[in-house]
Amino acid sequence: MIFNIATNASIIIIYAFVAIYGDKIKRPVMEKIPAFKIIPNLGNAKKQVILLGEKTYEKTKKANNFLTEVADFFLFISCTFKEAFSRNFEFREFVRQCFQIGYKSLPLISVTGIIMGLVLTIQSRPALVNFGAVSMLPGMVAISLIREMGPVITALICAGKIGSGMGAELGSMKVTEQIDAMEVSSTNPIRFLVVTRVLAATIMIPLLVLYADALGILGSWAGANIKGDVSFVLFFSQAFSHVHFIDFLPAVVKSFFFGGVIGFVGCYKGYTAGRGTESVGIAANSAVVLSSLLVIIVDMVAVQITDML
Q1: The pLDDT of residue 29
Q2: What is the reported pTM?
Q3: What's the CA gap between 164 and 151, in Å, rounded?
Q4: Alpha-helical segments (H) within the chain
């Protein structure tokens, strides 16, 4: 981006030079200068200068807006951390948000977890039958769910449900000036609205991940019994015989980061929404998209770190 801006700036200087002094420079002299060969028509030099100037301004403005938004996001995170360790913590609101984020997400996470294990088992069983390794099915499904599929898919589902809910709720409060009313009434909106939601998401999403893992293994057992006959105790004993503590630890740790990312992005997009009614939808949509993207990026970084350990 910086290279493009510098290139456009140099071309603008050339066009401006030709527009001012083009009539005074002789044609043979101009043809010997390589820079003037890129100018197709000297008569349109002024128009080209204006056009390139507008394009350069637009690109510079976009880069400036992006850097400003990144800086605002980090300032928002720093203010949230500052208020999280201050006095007068809103414990009742925190418990209410834990109920909203955790308990009310159980039906969706339950269906998702069972389907994850069921589909993974049905798709993997034929390949293992060809290699005569059906006995490895419970361990393979358990490790796949615990290490990667459970945390990532659960976090993406929560990004769609919880992230959009936070963005829409705080965005509507911003539009209806409820946040401004809280500031006027000496109530810190960051402490009451943001800190409670971020902490609730950070704590509840790892619990939802463990719950989805358990239901995923249960769904895998149901899938294994579609074309076979495996007892419940035997299936779970084989599944957990291949799982070790080192498989649980990275998954649980990155689940906390998933929850923090979803909470911060959802609250930031809602808290900084515009004044119009359409900004509520924009805040909810951008919260889902950005939190989903950051979940995938955090997962990639976590996988790389785990691989080096």
Answers
A1: 44
A2: 0.78
A3: 19
A4: 2-21, 27-31, 45-84, 91-101, 106-130, 137-144, 150-158, 164-175, 178-184, 189, 196-224, 232-241, 245-271, 278-308
Which are the contacts of 52, defined by CB distance < 8 A and separation ≥ 6? 8, 11, 12, 15
- Tokens at 254, concatenated: 């990155």
* Cα Rg of the chain, angstroms: 28
Q: Which two tokens stand for residue 224?
A: 């294994």
Task: Return the closest-CA partner of residue 117 out of 136, 138, 131, 96.
Answer: 138
Q: Mark residue 229 as left, alpha or beta (left: phi above 0; alpha: psi -120 to 50; beta: remaining).
A: beta
pLDDT average, residue stretch 123-151:
87
Q: What is the mean pLDDT of residues 285-295?
A: 93
Higher-confidence residue: 94 or 134?
94
For residue 261, give the nearest of 289, 234, 239, 224 by alpha carbon: 289
The predicted-structure confidence for 4-55, as pLDDT tens digits, reads as follows: 545 555 555 555 555 445 444 444 444 444 544 445 555 566 566 667 777 7
First to last CA, the chain: 36
